[in-house]
């Protein structure tokens, strides 16, 4: 398993990244779509890979937890951060969104990247996750979405990788929050627990901004 972190080189990574040995993929030209496609093709030909963005906080025991989840579905693309405002439990889906932390089995990411390249002119005005979703649908490929999220998006509204993004992307259903409260993802839907999770997120936001 190899870990890669997409970055523009402008951001200092959170100390939680020290849990993994990773290689930086630097987009110096601020071309998020083009760089993502080329990087995905490059890294995922011969290895199983986890591709992360640079504006995250990884949960405690991240490496152990993410590799345990991957072991359950080693031949599927796995999205570890999707639709942060929505409540759901882990499931298969054909609706790929967000790309903060994604697992690609050997060769699969390369196939997706090549398909993204083929359809790029049609979808070039969209974010790279939308282009990726279109490519995966062309390939008749579903993926697995894990909840609770094992990474938290931090740093407020500003994206350095894709400057078009100007909205919050953090999530109350973060593994560390659930563990702090001693609840399961199924219990997170309860009104009282939802409120407690929201308060933990607000507390964290105050340290990020």
CATH topology: Spore Coat Polysaccharide Biosynthesis Protein SpsA, Chain A
CATH level-1 class: Alpha Beta
Radius of gyration over C-alpha positions, nearest whole angstrom: 16 Å
CATH architecture type: Alpha-Beta Complex
Q: What is the terminal separation in angstroms? A: 33 Å
Described by the principal axes of the CA atoms, the overall outline is globular
Strand arrangement, major sheet:
2-1-3-7-5-8-6
Please give the domain count.
1
Total E-strand runs = 9
Share of residues in helices: 25-40%
| SSE-based structural type | alpha/beta
Average pLDDT for all residues? 93
Number of helices: 6
| Beta-strand share of residues | 15-25%
**Strand and helix order:** EEHEEHEEEHHEEHH
- Give the low-confidence spans: 162-167
């Amino acid at each position: 398993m190899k870990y890669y972190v997409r970055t523009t080189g402008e951001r200092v990574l959170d100390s939680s990244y020290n849990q993994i040995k990773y290689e930086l993929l630097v987009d110096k030209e601020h071309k998020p779509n083009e760089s993502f496609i080329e990087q995905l093709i490059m890294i995922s030909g011969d290895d199983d890979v986890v591709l992360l963005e640079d504006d995250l906080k990884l949960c405690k025991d991240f490496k152990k937890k993410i590799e345990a989840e991957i072991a359950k579905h080693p031949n599927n693309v796995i999205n570890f951060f999707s639709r942060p405002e929505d409540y759901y439990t882990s499931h298969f889906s054909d609706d790929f969104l967000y790309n903060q932390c994604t697992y690609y089995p050997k060769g699969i990411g390369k196939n997706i990247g090549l398909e993204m390249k083929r359809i790029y002119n049609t979808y070039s005005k969209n974010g790279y996750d939308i282009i990726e979703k279109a490519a995966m649908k062309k390939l008749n490929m579903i993926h697995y979405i894990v909840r609770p999220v094992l990474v938290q998006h931090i740093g407020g509204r500003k994206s350095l990788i894709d400057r078009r993004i100007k909205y919050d992307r953090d999530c109350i259903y973060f593994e560390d929050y659930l563990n702090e409260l001693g609840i399961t993802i199924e219990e997170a839907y309860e009104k009282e627990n939802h409120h407690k999770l929201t308060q933990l997120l607000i507390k964290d936001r105050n340290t990020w901004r």
